[in-house]
Amino acid sequence: MPTRPPAEPGMTLEQVVTPALIVDLGALEHNIAMLARRVAGNPHGVRLTPHAKAHKCVEIARMQMAAGASRMCCQNVAEAEAMVAGGIKSILLSNEIVGQDKARRLAALAHMARIGVCVDHPDQADALSAAASSEGVTLDVLVEIDIGMGRCGVAPGADAVTLAKYIASKPGLHFAGLQAYHGAAQHLRKPAERKVAIARAAEMARSTAELLRAAGLPCEVIAGAGTGTYENELGSGVYNELQCGSYAFMDADYGRNETATPFANALFILTTIISAAVPGRAVCDAGLKATSLESGLPVVFGEDGVTYIKATDEHGQLEIASNAKIALGHRLRLIPGHCDPTVNLHDWLVATRNGKVEAVWHVARGW
What we know:
With 367 residues, this protein is α/β, with parallel strands linked by helices. It has two domains: 13-22 and 261-362, D-serine dehydratase-like domain (Lyase, Ornithine Decarboxylase, Chain A, domain 1, Beta Barrel); 25-256, Alanine racemase (TIM Barrel, Alpha-Beta Barrel). The protein has helices spanning 25-40, 58-66, 77-85, 100-109, 122-135, 158-168, 191-214, 230-234, 339-343; strands at 20-24, 47-48, 72-74, 90-93, 114-119, 139-144, 173-179, 221-224, 241-242, 267-275, 281-284, 299-301, 306-311, 316-320, 331-335, 348-353, 356-362. The strands form two sheets. Strands 1, 10, 11, 12, 13, 14, 15, 16 and 17 form a nine-stranded mixed sheet that branches. An eight-stranded parallel sheet has the order 2-9-8-7-6-5-4-3.
């Protein structure tokens, strides 16, 4: 059962119960439109398939689809279930799943939407085939290849072809192509570093696709890319699906990349100063339970001389410069270090425009 919403439409920001996750609708709409226009203008037929794991919100997914996205990516079955329940008709689960329960849940969704999923082992294909056959549906399956991420994926080349042949032989499964995501490249700070990393990744994907086609297996999809590298994949002539996610919100860690970005910060943690007893120091009510720290501390937005320096369970410790005017009850906006896991800590997104609450959206945090 979700918690009570921290706000209602029509409220001002001063009335929102903190800590709360707020979305600047103007910035969100700008970001969605910017990437949609960029991808729509490409000469290679590349499609945008945004990642729902960044926002876990059906309303935002609908905005992305309305702007021209061809399908939504999800990272677990619960996200896919929420998106399909919200009316999204094409989903790629850009991850592996194990076990008959999850396979059955995914196959059941294929009665209502086109469903794709990734594999990197024959046992995963077996479970998906059994579930799809039981439901009388067909699942699109991508072979994930490790092109530098060092996480999931078979080796590019012969290993990927062997697995693709196995998938193509299984009832209820349609081999659809390759998943070639290089997540580690997204936060390489220098543009030249990202360019080199994606050039290597694209070459591995291209050569694997050629082997697949030579083996009689059409490679319809070569998917990957993220907010930090999408321009590289877009211009590669190899990728045809871009799985950007964070672009909708942005975060402090993307702000550390050494490159200009067309995207604005749209996601903030609204927090209140709950203690200002000592000069030079204050405490807000957004701590570890309100923001993810694996990509660094949040950054205070629009307030000179105020720095977030430490987080504990329910407290955020702030360093206050002598020229900053911060008093008890003052409200701050924090840019989270990493938007995706920060969203996952909250039940609600408070959508705002010009300082007023326009909508309150549920965060789909199931398993």
